[in-house]
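$ ./design --mode recover --in tokens.txt
reading tokens...
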């Protein structure tokens, strides 16, 4: 029996049996449906091409989706309490933040977020359920989102393999999301859109394999004079065998032509060069990256310069992955997980996208110091960046004497350009 329990609220919800059991009723009064799933859905896919096969065999798909999912998962998530519109307090020890660092006993936050982002991009839906204070990712092939005639979601079911009861998790704390579908909830997988392109690429890979395996390394044919004597069986077989061996292994030696034979090359044969294999693979990378709204330059599909690569990196956590961050953030905050783990009022979690979008520490320090007009870090904070121990007396902000209000903007502003003006010190000018 699987019980979803909340240490914060003391509530528990029975969502069903993981071993062939019986229908149950939640403590909130919701009936649990127990329908035989028939064929195990973990072995079934309604997509035109099996996603697992695509993930294994399509370099372009794995390159683009893997890049986006890893970049998404590297951003840390923090918990905050909203005091008012202009004030919020960081709650780093909140269970709501800790569960995003360690969602399960054998799963860390990076692994969970990578899996959820990959599910969202490949299946256009994702879900993780809070079970006994662990956040468990549910494979998309087991998710069944039931909707009414208007396409509004009404029930969320986890379809278990044959012999096990399905689990109704409609009222269970969870993070769930999906994309657009014309008539119902649940989204439409991008694999439908990319199926033809990926199939074409798969056939191109098979063709290249056959070309390297069976195509002659030197394309041409032999011409034998008509006046040459007629070959005997063993002599002909020996000659043909020597040429076959040379074709498969050119390093075996140089074949010897007999009876005035001539070798004539064929220039019209298909080669990897004139078939433009490299261009075709690069085009597939670009098309797949564009389908997921990823700049092709970031995955090496198109050549870029230092300046535009840096600009694309800034865009990655903004307009590129920003919609996925917003969708995931709202799913975490609206799915009942936060309030089930922590009863602190007005508590919420959000990804620290700004840390990923900002430049290097040197760039940030230069901008902040100019904007603030003086030092902005304590000596203790500087030591902590280098993992040095705390020293008493270093938790006060030091302001150099040459930095005053109405004077220089920051300690770095010095030189003759700052001398003069109405407020200049006459002694300094002398």
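writing sequence...
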């Amino acid at each position: 029996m699987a019980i979803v329990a909340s240490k914060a609220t003391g509530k528990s919800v029975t969502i069903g049996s993981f071993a062939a059991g019986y229908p149950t009723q939640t403590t909130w009064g919701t009936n649990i449906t127990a329908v035989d799933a028939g064929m195990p859905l973990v072995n079934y896919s309604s997509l035109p091409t099996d996603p697992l096969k695509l993930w294994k065999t399509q370099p372009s798909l794995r390159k683009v989706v893997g890049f986006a999912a890893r970049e998404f998962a590297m951003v840390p998530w923090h918990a905050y309490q909203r005091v008012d519109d202009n004030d919020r307090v960081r709650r780093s020890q909140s269970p709501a933040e800790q569960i995003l660092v360690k969602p399960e006993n054998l799963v860390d936050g990076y692994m969970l977020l990578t899996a959820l982002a990959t599910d969202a991009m490949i299946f256009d839906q994702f879900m993780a359920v809070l079970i006994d204070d662990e956040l468990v990712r549910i494979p998309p092939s087991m998710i069944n989102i039931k909707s009414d005639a208007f396409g509004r979601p009404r029930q969320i079911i986890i379809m278990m393999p044959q012999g096990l009861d399905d689990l109704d998790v409609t009222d269970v704390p969870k993070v769930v999301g999906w994309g657009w579908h014309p008539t119902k909830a649940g989204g439409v997988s991008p694999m439908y859109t990319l199926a033809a392109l990926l199939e074409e690429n798969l056939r191109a890979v098979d063709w290249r394999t056959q070309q390297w395996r069976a195509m002659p390394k030197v394309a041409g044919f032999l011409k034998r004079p008509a006046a040459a004597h007629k070959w005997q069986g063993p002599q002909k077989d020996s000659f043909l065998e020597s040429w076959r061996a040379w074709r498969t292994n050119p390093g075996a030696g140089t074949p010897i032509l007999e009876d005035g034979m001539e070798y004539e090359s064929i220039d019209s044969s298909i080669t990897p060069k004139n078939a433009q294999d490299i261009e075709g693979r690069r085009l597939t990378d670009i098309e797949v990256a564009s389908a997921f709204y990823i700049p092709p330059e970031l995955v090496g599909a198109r050549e870029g310069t230092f300046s535009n690569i840096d600009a694309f990196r800034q865009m990655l956590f903004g307009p590129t992955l920003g919609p996925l961050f917003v969708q995931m953030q709202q799913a975490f905050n609206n799915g009942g997980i936060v309030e089930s783990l922590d009863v602190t009022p007005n508590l919420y979690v959000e990804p620290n996208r700004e840390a990923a979008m900002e430049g290097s520490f040197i760039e940030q320090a230069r901008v902040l110091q100019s904007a603030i007009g003086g030092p902005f870090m304590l000596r203790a904070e500087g030591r902590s960046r280098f993992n040095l121990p705390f020293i008493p007396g270093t938790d006060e902000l030091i302001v150099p004497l040459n930095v005053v209000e109405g004077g220089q903007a920051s300690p770095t502003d010095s030189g003759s350009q700052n001398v003069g003006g109405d407020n200049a010190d006459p002694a300094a000018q002398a």
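exit 0
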